[in-house]
Amino acid sequence: MRQSAVRRKLQDLQGRISVLRAEIVVLDEQIAVADEEVEDLRVRALVSETPLAAKEHAEAARHASLAHKARSHAAEGLVALEAERDRLLDELVVEVGS
User: Fold this and answer.
1) Residue 45: how many CB atoms within 10 A of its CB?
2) For residue 97, what pLDDT is reported?
């Protein structure tokens, strides 16, 4: 592949990597809040022993679980993009060295 095409792909990948890293930071913050809310609602459900409190806890737990899954998915995407970036960098080094 030509160096200019590799460099364009690298720039695109780096942009996508930056976006995913920012997304992961936001998700980490959301997860911290969601996990804290789940714990608060768990205690409230234990103390009050009402169906409404149990329902609120279950709903918050589902929300937190979805946030954890979204973060995991974003992290997997980041690993894949970084691997592709590393492959392109290796390709670029080989072309420059030739």
Assistant:
1) 19
2) 66
